[in-house]
Amino acid sequence: MKTFYPALVALCLGSGAAVAQTAPADPPAMQLEASRNEVWLNVGGFSRHFHRDRGYNENNIGLGVEVRTSPELSYMAGAYDNSVRKTTSYAAVNWQPWTVGPFKVGGTIGLMNGYPSQAKGGVFFAAVPMATWEGRRYGVNVGIIPSVGKVDGAVIVQFKLRVY
C-alpha cells in the first residue's frame, strides 16, 4: 500500500497533461467538450477463471478511478478483492487505439500487488488485453488474463459509472 498512494497521486496529477486536442475546424463548444477529461468511478466486478475447480473468489468488488483524457487513453487506479481473497491495489494506463463496433480495444499496462504467487504479494508489472464499452453514464471494461506460469487465467469484467 505504501507505493499505491504515491502512484495514485502521480497518476491524477499527470493526467491533465494528456488532454486531447480537437481539430480547429470544430466549433468552440465542441472543442471545450472534447478537451474535458471524463472521470469514471470503477466499482470492481467479476472474474471467471479458466480453472473453475480451484476455489477462486470471482466476486471482485473494489473501488477505483479512471480518468479518460482522450478517446484512446485513460489512466486507472484503485483497489479490489482479488481472486485469492487478498486486497490488490493497482495503477495502470489503458491504451485502446482500435474501435470494433461499440467497443474500444487495446490493452492495459501497469503495476499491481496482492497476489502471493507474484513477487511474494508485492508490486509487479502486468499487461492485460482490454475492451471497453462506454455509454453516457455507465461503462464496462472486459479483459483477458492469460494463463502463464503461476498465473491461472480468467476473463474479468469491471463496471464503472461516469461521475464527470
Name the beta content range: over 45%
Low-pLDDT windows of residues = 1-33
Portion of residues within helices: 10-25%
- The side-by-side strand order for the widest beta sheet comes to 1-2-3-4-5-6-7-8
Largest sheet: 8 strands, antiparallel, barrel
- What is the ordering of alpha helices and beta strands? HHEEEEEEEE
- What do the pLDDT scores average to? 84
Question: Tally the helices: what do you get?
Answer: 2
**Radius of gyration computed on alpha carbons:** 16 Å
CATH architecture descriptor name: Beta Barrel
Do you know the CATH topology? Porin
CATH class: Mainly Beta
- Cα(first) to Cα(last) distance is 27 Å
Structural overview:
With 164 residues, this protein is mostly beta strands. The chain has a single domain (4-14, 37-162), classed as Porin. It has two helices and eight strands; from the N terminus they run ααββββββββ. The chain has an eight-stranded antiparallel beta barrel with strand order 1-2-3-4-5-6-7-8. The two termini are 27 Å apart.
Per-chain topology:
Elements: H1 4-14, H2 28-35, E1 38-49, E2 59-68, E3 73-81, E4 87-100, E5 103-112, E6 124-134, E7 138-145, E8 154-162
